[in-house]
Amino acid sequence: MAPKYFEELEIWKASRELTCGIYKITNNGLFAKDYDLKSQIRRAAASIMSNIAEGHERSGNPEFIQFLSIAKGSCGEVRSQLYIAMDQGYINNKDCERIIDSFKKLSSMISNLMKYLKNSSYKGAKYKKTVQTA
């Protein structure tokens, strides 16, 4: 049975944890002073969890898949920005690679949910047939 609330989704929980991590690393050292990159990476990370939540609340698999696709794209955006941060010396290589691996895992989780939803015969609560009376 599908979770009733987006907060019950493992991908949302994982995205929330990773977003918290992004906020923490962007508060340190030179990263905290690069306001453009700091803002952009935070918005991209927040976009992941926000799009998972919004898609789930739409109550339909086709729309949920669309929002999951956007969330997956934001995972790639965060990873790309992490490389920029590493190249600028804002984060060391080892920590950067660890965080990037976590976002790759989240991206795979999102892909797996998208595949599951695409193959599911259940299309969402908003697509339930209503019984008409004569």
Helix amount: over 70%
Computed over alpha carbons, the radius of gyration is 18 Å
CATH class: Mainly Alpha
- Total number of beta strands: 0
Largest sheet, described in full?
none
Number of helices: 5
SSE arrangement, N to C: HHHHH
State mean pLDDT (0 to 100 scale). 92
Class from helix and strand fractions = mainly alpha
Number of domains: 1
How would the global form be characterised?
elongated
- CATH level-3 fold name: de novo design (two linked rop proteins)
What name goes with the CATH superfamily?
A: 23S rRNA-intervening sequence
Taking the alpha carbons of the first and last residues, their distance comes to: 32 Å
**Percentage beta strand:** under 5%
Oligomer: single chain
Low-confidence stretches: none
Please characterize this protein's 3D structure.
This protein is mainly alpha-helical. The protein has a single domain (26-120), classed as Up-down Bundle (de novo design (two linked rop proteins)), CATH 1.20.1440.60. 73% of the residues lie in helices and 0% in strands. α1 packs antiparallel against α5 (93-119) and α4 (61-87) runs antiparallel to α5. The mean pLDDT is 92.
Which labels suit this protein?
134 residues; mainly alpha; de novo design (two linked rop proteins); 0% strand; 5 helices; single chain
